[in-house]
Design brief:
UDP-N-acetylmuramoyl-L-alanine:D-glutamate ligase; six-stranded mixed β-sheet; Protein-Tyrosine Phosphatase, Chain A; 15 helices; globular; 432 residues; 2 domains
Amino acid sequence: MNKNETNQWIANYRTDQPHFGLERMMKLLALRGNPHLKLKVIHIGGTNGKGSTIAFLKNMLGKMGLRVGVFSSPYLIHYTDQIAINEESIPEARLETMMVDYRSLLEGEHAQALQGTTEFEIITAIAYDYFASEQVDVAIMEVGMGGLLDSTNVCQPILTGITTIGLDHVALLGDSLEAIAEQKAGIIKQGVPLVTGNIVPEALAVINQIAEAKAAPRLVYGEDYQVSHHESMETGEVFDYTSPLRQGRFQTGLLGLHQIENAGMALALLDTFCKEDGRELASNDLLAQALEETSWPGRFEVVSRRPLMILDGAHNPHAVKALLASLEERFADYHKEILFTCIKTKALEDMLDLLETLPDTELTLTHFDDGRATDEKVLKKVAYSRNFNYQSWQEFLDQKMTENEEKKTVRIVTGSLYFLAQVRAYLMERKN
């Protein structure tokens, strides 16, 4: 199979809704010799902040000289970026070869037993398989959706982390913070340490209860480790970190006030991993360098300075609140022009209610070409009813990248990460 054939083949397994359950994953991985059980895994779940926390953690572990496998989704640049070791994505030829192997399983004598397998399950299985064959020192696995029944949740991790809890995918995970917390807490394993981020009390109570029942030692944000914001620099956020194992001042390579919480959680995860794995703690200097060098596409990412344009994957109300806090802190005296869209399973109206609270802001809705995207008619109707602009995103970008500004202006392209992948590719092509 060539690249186009493999892409078309795996696209046949794509679904709008996840097929929750771990039975197919267990069967699929058993046929490959259970690679997921041969790895030291750090398993990270949560509503928001997973990607940035993992980016910080990966960089710090890499600076310590470890080979670090990372599985994350969705991808923003190349399909292969979902599976990477240190900074290197899985080679396309290797991914194609592995897809051929998985195709023979899914279409061969085991086809009946594996019926209903999804694209996400296949790519998760390939990630476990690839990391085991490459004998990474540690694999960081990001939960796709929920936790309890997510396809990544077949591992026996050395450490787990839950970043934040917010209302997201409510039709699938539950319509209360407590219900969502219960799903996310499904990744907690018997006796395995758990690090939690800045989580609201009602959700944290559910997580603590499940952790206690599983005798999982807990490191809690604000109790067992603390972060405090010192100042915002053009290149990142300066913060102080305190825990029984480490104190110091650090700077993030990512912009946005919420990034100090993600970096703080990454430090807590790193030190816990070192303790569990019998490793010496790394020096503050080494970790400071790793944090400062961290980049992560689509997270308050400045893609152009003149004109000023930012991409941010604020794809649920919790993430929109974080985006607004960062905009108010950094760009309070700027005129803001926001381009927004989201996928069908997201709380469109709730996010727009929040975006409307931002002063001196012009909102434009748009649609992007993806089966998961909110219907164009719905977006146009909402734009009309709320007196927003509606425009094709390509036209918006072409216009905003060339027009002269009458006042200090910042443009923010936000909403679905699937949408940002298309925007980013378009802007890079335009730049070239």
